[in-house]
Amino acid sequence: MSSEYDASEADADAVSSRTDPGVRKTPAGQATGPDTDTILQTERLTKRFGGLTAIDSVDFGIDEGELRCLIGPNGAGKSTMLKLVTGRHEATEGRIYYDGIDVTELSSHERVRRGIGIKFQAPSVFDSLSAAENVRLPLQRTGDGDLSEPIAEALDRVGLLDERETPASDLSHGQQQRLEIGMAAALSPSLLLLDEPVAGLSIEEREEIATLVTELNEEGMTLIVIEHDIDFVDRIADRVTVLNQGSIFREGDIDEIRADEEVREIYLGET
Questions:
Q1: pLDDT tens digits for range 88-146
Q2: Domain residue spans in the chain?
Q3: Residue 152 near residue 164 (C-beta atoms within 8 A)
Q4: Which three-class secondary structure state does DSSP give residue 160?
Q5: Domain made up of 3-20+33-266: CATH architecture
Q6: Could you tell me if 222 and 66 are in contact, meaning their C-beta atoms sit under 8 angstroms apart?
Q7: pTM for the complete prediction?
Q8: Which residues contact 114 (CB under 8 A, 6 or more apart)?
């Protein structure tokens, strides 16, 4: 059975459950459908690489409009989790429900089309292209005609409009990070995942990214942000999920996480 067929079938089920109260909802519709606040829910999500279990039966959910930070030590499974959600990795076991649909078997491209965007830790901009040309790349996959206005809007959103003709190779590391966030946000995803967006940045650059991320959230975008910098997490997060050895260790608001002795000792490097 193809991914396209699975998606169509799931869409039909989701629509039926909205239009006919007598129709039993699918698991995806029950978890993330129109009668819930939840936009993303994993169910016993597991990823194994040979004998290594990187993600171990994780039930993770996030509400629409939320800004959630995902923290934990190196090797906890944070990046693997994002790659499972975006389809870069195939799940070994479990399901991924998004906006009323079971997306577990869908390709990365199809998940992007449905409103899931991602920016990985290392900028992957094209050095030889200008800032504007980099933003054009994701937009031209879905848009036709003159893209000058949406390109300008995307660059203005991340404070790079004046650098539109600048080659990406000439941008600072912080500017490249903002450019890639702008590229991911240009398609107006409902859910945007950011993997360590302030790694290697100065204090001033971190504040710029914090402002950008909170503005995107205020515009209605749901965000999951992986980050080690607890001060940055404190600056942006609604809630925090702590991963440990591929499993959820703690969840709560930032004050609860900061006050948790085991979290401080194990994840924040305090004794």
A1: 999 999 999 999 999 999 999 999 999 999 988 766 789 999 999 999 998 987 766 78
A2: 3-20+33-266
A3: yes
A4: coil
A5: 3-Layer(aba) Sandwich (3.40)
A6: yes
A7: 0.86
A8: 98, 99, 101, 103, 106
